[in-house]
Amino acid sequence: QVQLVESGGGLVQAGGSLRLSCAASGRTFSRSNMGWFRQAPGKEREFVAAITWSGSSTFYADSVKGRFAISRDNAKNTVYLEMNSLKPEDTAVYYCAADASTYYTSAYLGRIRSYDYWGQGTQVTVSS
Q1: Which long-range contacts (CB under 8 A, 24 or more apart) does 46-53 make?
Q2: Mean pLDDT throughout 54-70?
Q3: What percentage of residues in the chain have a pLDDT greater than 70?
Q4: Dihedrals φ, ψ of 85, to 5°?
Q5: If you average pLDDT over residues 47-55, what whole number do you get?
Q6: 10 Å Cβ neighbour count for 13?
Q7: 93-126 burial, b if ≥16 CB within 10 A, otherwise e?
Q8: Cα-Cα-Cα-Cα dihedral of 41, 43, 44, 46, to 10°?
Q9: Across all residues in the chain, what is the average pLDDT?
Q10: CA–CA separation, 95 vs 93, rounded Å?
Q11: Cα-flanking dihedrals φ and ψ of residue 114, to 5°?
């Protein structure tokens, strides 16, 4: 069992930056692939970024590539999402998710159903 708690969301002007954190409890964190997803009002939840259990590979949605960076610290049981050059269209609730396996492909980690545990989400609002 893994419990996830996101933090770091808030209100920021376009062009600004935020760093989201996701603290995980449970002994399996270091063997879990981790992902960030987001859901804007009236839209479906969508993939943002993922990192493999070892941190050796990262994957990004085209919409955030070059602006966002995912990282993890297995000693702290925490995964991060550094968000730069934020745009109003990045406004959403951001969710952290854990996949209790070490298997991965880009397509696999981009799917909602690949993840077993979800956090409650943190709101990110980007004003124009």
Answers
A1: 47/109, 47/110, 47/111, 47/112, 48/81, 48/94, 49/81, 50/104, 50/109, 50/110, 51/79, 52/102, 52/104, 52/109, 53/102, 53/104
A2: 97
A3: 100
A4: 50, 50
A5: 96
A6: 10
A7: bbbbbbbbeeebeeeebbeeebbebbbebbebeb
A8: -80
A9: 96
A10: 7
A11: -75, -15
